[in-house]
Automatic annotation (TrEMBL):
PANTHER family: PECTIN LYASE-RELATED, PLASMIN AND FIBRONECTIN-BINDING PROTEIN A. Keywords: Signal. The keyword Signal applies. Pfam families: Pect-lyase_RHGA_epim. Residues 1-22 form the signal peptide. This is Rhamnogalacturonase A/B/Epimerase-like pectate lyase domain-containing protein. Residues 43-242 form the Rhamnogalacturonase A/B/Epimerase-like pectate lyase domain.
Length: 326
């Protein structure tokens, strides 16, 4: 049986796996960046014909708005508060584009990813893909509760997926009802910030599926350029994970379960989050990372560490957990 634990633990743990010098970095000094925002250009998706009634397929109108902003040097695409925009294909966002969707809902029609930064035929390497992107606000509904199974036409996708990029911010976003994979997939990303987001509901996956996956560009990772690029300098703060009205929570809040030639994900900061999952953080080949100020509720394994080094785990609260830290 799980023991009721309410602990505040302050610890710095050094484990083998990644060769690294001890880091003096702190949560306040890592990832101090802001994506470049060209706010002079802004459009509403409604101006391009989006209806937002929850039944009309608004994919083409929204994509046209995103294309317009990109072709004019960057800017912001607005969604109207109170409307529900149904899309039948993944939206493609490119350099220097911001999405402002407070109060709006973007809902998947079928088993599609909602937002990607890599288009057909593109194969960027390193961190050279579409970058300097901000997504703010909105309910992004993957609609997994309508799936009958995890096979064939009902096979799931990542909710929001960014690959081979840098300077990414996702803020005040709620991602609902993900199927099979992840609410957010960061694959080969550096300088990324996920702040004040909610990840609610998950269906039809294995026990190691994270709400937020930090991934490496390798075969079978969903990435077209397999150059071994990993994520680094990522901040995840102020987020909440748990069940939706119809589906249970993701098995894992944030983590990785693959690497390339034993290289490490580095400078990951996870602070002030509320976690209601079976596993909180799955640190696999991580180094120089900080996990502090989080609340783990009923989590079997709040922080799992494997082949990692220079992890600072401090001032977290553990409620009804099996292993306060491991």
């Amino acid at each position: 049986m799980k023991k009721l634990l309410l602990l505040i633990v302050s610890a710095a743990i050094l484990l083998s796996g990644c060769s690294a010098e001890k880091s003096d970095k702190s949560a306040s000094s890592l990832s101090e960046f802001k994506p470049e925002s060209k706010i002079n250009n802004h459009v509403s998706v409604d101006d391009f014909g989006a209806v937002g009634d929850g039944t009309t397929d608004d994919y083409e109108a929204i994509q046209e708005a995103l294309d317009y902003i990109y072709s004019n040097g960057g800017g912001t695409v607005y969604f109207t508060s109170g409307k529900t925009y149904l899309i039948s294909k993944s939206l493609f966002i490119r350099d220097y584009t911001n999405i402002y969707a407070y109060g709006a809902t973007i809902k998947a029609k079928g088993s599609i990813g909602l937002l990607v930064n890599q288009g057909d035929g593109e194969e960027p390497t390193g961190y050279s893909g579409h970058s300097h992107i901000m997504v703010e606000g909105g309910i992004w509904d993957c609609d997994a509760h309508s799936f009958e199974d995890g096979l064939g036409t009902n096979y799931g996708q990542n909710g929001i997926s960014f690959t081979h990029c840098q300077d990414i911010t996702i803020r005040d976003v709620t991602i609902l009802n993900t199927a099979v994979y992840h609410a957010i997939e960061l694959n080969a990303c550096q300088n990324a910030r996920i702040q004040d987001c909610n990840f609610l509901g998950f269906k039809l996956g294995t026990g190691n599926k994270e709400a937020i996956q930090l991934d490496v560009a390798q075969k079978n990772s969903g990435n077209k350029a397999w150059d071994g690029t990993l994520c680094n300098n990522v901040v995840i703060t102020g987020c909440f994970t748990g069940p939706s009205e119809r589906l249970p929570a993701h098995p894992v809040f944030v983590g990785s379960h693959a690497t390339y030639e034993k290289n490490c994900y580095s400078d990951i900061i996870i602070t002030n989050n509320i976690v209601n999952s079976d596993c909180g953080v799955y640190a696999y080949y991580w180094k120089d990372c900080i996990m502090t100020g989080n609340i783990f509720n009923g989590v079997g394994d709040p922080v799992h560490q494997e082949k990692s080094s220079n992890l600072v785990i401090s001032n977290n609260i553990y409620n009804n957990t099996v292993y306060p830290q491991q």
